């Protein structure tokens, strides 16, 4: 019986591998693998981030913290999987309908996927969109220089960009804190507000805040 089970498993694996080699199924299989990769990558990215941020900055029981980490990881993984699935599916569909791939296909497919998957305004989606926005601004700036729309800077503009970004974010934190994303507020509160408060050596050097009621 065990030997027969192994034979059946080998036959199934051979059949699956044969299907994976078929060119006519390639577009559909790429969509499915995109879903798989989106789910795995989302989990890999979110799990360690959620673990660190939750343990460092969130209060509550260990059970509540673990639940929060699991929920954040699941949401990020699910959304990225759905987006990749939607994007690659629409790309394949457009290419099939028009007989070729053109640049607009990518923009259109991603717009639809972004609307459907990341359109809900929640902490996870907000964080992902802000991450992408910063990369887009850098990418468009480099593209504008490459295409000649703006001249090549004579000096590296990065120091000026760093100064303006830090100046702006600290100004927002000090005077318009509610406009910043909650996790950024938590990080900056720890760095800039909590460092103004201490009672003795314990919460000056060892701990951030005293846990007793003294």
TrEMBL record:
InterPro entries: Pmp4. One of its GO terms (cellular component) is peroxisomal membrane. This is PXMP4 protein. It comes from Dromas ardeola. The gene is Pxmp4.
């Amino acid at each position: 019986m065990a030997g027969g089970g192994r034979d059946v498993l080998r036959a199934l694996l051979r059949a699956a591998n044969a299907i994976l080699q078929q060119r006519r199924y390639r577009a559909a299989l790429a969509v499915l693998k995109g879903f798989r990769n989106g789910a795995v990558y989302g989990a890999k990215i979110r799990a360690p981030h959620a673990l660190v941020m939750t343990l460092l900055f969130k209060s509550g029981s260990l059970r509540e913290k673990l639940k929060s980490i699991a929920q954040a990881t699941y949401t990020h993984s699910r959304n990225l999987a759905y987006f990749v699935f939607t994007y690659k599916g629409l790309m394949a569909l457009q290419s099939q309908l028009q007989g070729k791939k053109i640049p607009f296909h990518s923009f259109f497919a991603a717009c639809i996927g972004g609307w459907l998957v990341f359109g809900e305004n929640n902490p996870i989606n907000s964080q992902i969109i802000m991450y992408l926005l910063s990369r887009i601004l850098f990418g468009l700036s480099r593209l504008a220089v490459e295409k000649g729309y703006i001249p090549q800077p004579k000096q590296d503009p990065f120091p000026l960009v760093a100064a303006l970004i830090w100046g702006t974010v600290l100004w927002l934190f000090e005077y318009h804190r509610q406009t910043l994303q909650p996790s950024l507020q938590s990080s900056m509160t720890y760095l800039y507000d909590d460092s103004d408060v201490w009672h003795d050596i314990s919460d000056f050097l060892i701990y951030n805040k005293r846990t007793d009621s003294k």
